[in-house]
Write a structure and sequence with these properties.
- By secondary structure, the protein is an alpha/beta fold.
- It is 39% helix and 17% strand.
- It is built from eight helices and nine strands.
- It has an eight-stranded mixed β-barrel, surrounded by four helices.
- Strand 2 (67-70), helix 4 (73-81) and strand 3 (89-92) form a beta-alpha-beta unit.
- The termini are far apart.
Length: 225
């Protein structure tokens, strides 16, 4: 959809500046590109709430059919306020206190945990009564630059994949129901082989977890096992 050349200028005059203008049709177009590309699979897409927390945009994306990925408990609250059902909200924590994870559990959303310490606390607190996801660090370098690379061996994001034995010990000790495995290697990824490597890592781990419902490739892409 083309806009008149003075469209934005007129909006600025009407509403004052600074003014933020979003293109709903373009958002729909981009989302449809994704769903069309994966139309023959059960892949589900999650919008990263941290990218833009405008509540009206969140409501629009919700109505398009997307789910939402939240990085903080405040984003979880916002997603609920925007009308996302709790079953369509994924909360992926990083380096936070366990009290935030407890609140996410009380709100009934899907939870990914990224440290052995919080995973043990979760097991001790909830055992097998609440399914949980585990964020793994695959030790893969990817992304547009180092600052947005989240899966390499120096990254703070996720439990190193070579500590899978420790994860399984906690699963056994607390009878944890690990419902998903999450890997996120970075943003602005142009090499599809990065996703292939991530999938290979996850496929090797799938047989070790008997309650899996889906795997999560980060970047908003999720697929059932």
């Amino acid at each position: 959809m083309s806009l008149p050349p003075d469209y934005l200028t007129n909006l600025a005059r009407e509403f004052g500046t600074p003014v933020y203008v979003y293109h709903a049709e373009k958002i729909r177009e981009q989302y449809q590109k994704l769903t069309t590309a994966f139309r023959d699979s059960d892949t589900v897409f999650f919008y990263a709430c941290k990218a833009l927390t405008n509540v009206n945009i969140l409501k629009y994306i919700r109505d398009l059919g997307a789910n939402v990925d939240c990085s903080s408990i405040n984003e979880v609250r916002l997603a609920l306020h925007a009308g996302f059902p709790k079953s369509r909200i994924l909360y992926t924590s990083n380096g936070i206190g366990f009290d935030e994870i407890e609140e996410a559990q009380s709100l009934g959303v899907i939870i990914n945990i990224d440290s052995l310490s919080n995973l043990e606390k979760f097991g001790d607190r909830f055992g097998s009564t609440y399914p949980v996801g585990v964020r793994l660090r695959p030790n893969i370098m990817a992304g547009g630059n180092l600052k947005i690379s989240t899966g390499h061996d120096k990254s703070k994001f996720g439990i190193p994949v070579d500590q899978i034995g420790l994860i399984l010990e906690l699963v056994t000790k607390y009878d944890l129901k690990v419902y998903d495995l999450h890997i996120h290697t970075g943003s602005e990824i142009k090499d599809v082989d990065v996703f292939v490597k991530s999938i290979e890592i996850l496929f090797d781990l799938i047989p070790k977890f008997h309650d899996l419902g889906f795997i999560d490739l980060g970047g908003g892409i999720q697929s059932p096992v």
